[in-house]
Design a protein that fits this description.
Elements (H helix, E strand, L loop, with lengths): L2 H19 L15 H12 L4 H18 L33 E6 L2 H9 L4 E4 L6 H14 L6 E5 L2 H7 L3 E4 L1 H6 L2 H9 L3 E6 L2 H8 L5 E4 L16 H11 L5 E3 L8 H5 L5 E4 L1 H4 L4 H12 L1
Helix pairs in contact: 1-2, 2-3, 4-5, 5-6
C-alpha cells in the first residue's frame, strides 16, 4: 500500500463524513503508531476533520480493527462498534452501581440552596458543584445538599468531593478526567464499595475509552456548544460528534453538557442521549422554577 493509496482512502473518508462532522481547524497528523492502510487513512482524515491527536489516534485504531474484522475497508462506516474501541462489554472488572438509563433534566448547581430549590421544582437529577478551598465549608455544603433533596425523588451527585459524598450519604459523585486520573486504585474502590454512583466527564474518544475502563454509572459528553463556565482544552464538539459518541457509548446512560439552551434540546435529544445538563439555563433564568418546568417538558 503506497502513500498515494492511503491518501486516496483518506479522501474517501472525508467525502463521506466532512459535511457531517463540521470540520474544525485541521490538526497536525500525529506520527503513525501502527501499520495498516485503514489506520493511516483514518489518521489523516480525522486530523483534517479537526480531531485532536489523541482522538484521531483512537478512531484510526478502531477503523483498522473494523476493517480487519469485516475483511474490507469501508470509508462510509464511521466506527461505532464498542469492540473496535476495546470497550469493556460485560467481561470487565466490576463497575459502579447503576443509575437510571435516562437521567432526564440534569441541573448543575452552585450550592445546597439551589440544589434544594431545583429538587423541589421536580428536576430529577441535580449536581452540587461547590467550589471552595475550605474543607469544613465543603463538608457542610455537601451535608446540606444531601438534606436538601430528602423528601424529593431527585438524585444528587456531588462534583469532585467524593470523600464528603461518602460521609454524607449522597447518591453519587461526578468526576472530571483529571480527578479520575488522580485517584489511586484503593480510592476508586472505596467509592465503589460505598455504593455511590459514578459519573465521568469526557471530551472525546480517548477520554470515553478511559472512562469506560472503570465502568462508571453514566458518562457525560461535551462541551457540545461553546461555554464560558469552564476553560475547555478541546473545541466545542457539536451535535454530529455527540451523535457519534452516543452510538459508541450506547450501553451507558449518557448526559450531554456544555452551552445547551432550551432551543437546542430537540436536536440534542435526537442524538439518543437520555439526559441534558444545564447550568445557566436555570441559575440565570428570571424564574428558575418556570424554566425547569419548560426544560422538563422539552426533555419529554
Amino acid at each position: 500500500m503506497t502513500t498515494t493509496d492511503t491518501t486516496a482512502m483518506a479522501q474517501a473518508i472525508l467525502a463521506h463524513h466532512a459535511a457531517t462532522f463540521e470540520p474544525c481547524t485541521a490538526q497536525p497528523v500525529p506520527p503513525p503508531g501502527q501499520d495498516g492502510p485503514a489506520y493511516g487513512a483514518a489518521l489523516q482524515a480525522c486530523s483534517a476533520l479537526g480531531f485532536i491527536a489523541i482522538d484521531a489516534e483512537c478512531v484510526a485504531q478502531a477503523w483498522q480493527r473494523q476493517t480487519d474484522r469485516n475483511g474490507r475497508f469501508d470509508p462510509a462506516q464511521w466506527p461505532d462498534d464498542p469492540r473496535d474501541f476495546g470497550l469493556r462489554g460485560h467481561g470487565g472488572p466490576p463497575g459502579f452501581a447503576p443509575c437510571p438509563a435516562a437521567l432526564g433534566l440534569y441541573a448543575v448547581l452552585p450550592d445546597a440552596a439551589w440544589v434544594g430549590r431545583m429538587a423541589r421544582a421536580g428536576v430529577p437529577t441535580v449536581q452540587l458543584r461547590y467550589k471552595s478551598q475550605d474543607a469544613g465549608a465543603v463538608a457542610r455544603e455537601v451535608r446540606a445538599a444531601v438534606q436538601a433533596v430528602q423528601g424529593t425523588p431527585a438524585l444528587l451527585f456531588i462534583n469532585d468531593h467524593w470523600r464528603e459524598a461518602i460521609a454524607a450519604g449522597a447518591y453519587g459523585v461526578h468526576l472530571g478526567q483529571e480527578d479520575l486520573d488522580a485517584l489511586q486504585p484503593d480510592e476508586l474502590a472505596a467509592i465503589r464499595a460505598a455504593g455511590l454512583r459514578l459519573g465521568v466527564s469526557t471530551h472525546g474518544y480517548a477520554e470515553m475509552v478511559r472512562a469506560d475502563a472503570v465502568g462508571p454509572s453514566y458518562i457525560a459528553m461535551g462541551a457540545v456548544f461553546p461555554t464560558t463556565l469552564k476553560q475547555m482544552a478541546t473545541a466545542p464538539q457539536g451535535v454530529a460528534r455527540l451523535a457519534a459518541y452516543a452510538r459508541l457509548m450506547r450501553s451507558y446512560p449518557l448526559v450531554a453538557i456544555g452551552g445547551i439552551g432550551a432551543e437546542q434540546f430537540a436536536e440534542i435529544r435526537r442524538t439518543g442521549v437520555g439526559s441534558i445538563a444545564v447550568v445557566r439555563a436555570l441559575v440565570q433564568a428570571p424564574d428558575p422554577e418556570q424554566a425547569a418546568a419548560d426544560l422538563m417538558r422539552r426533555m419529554a
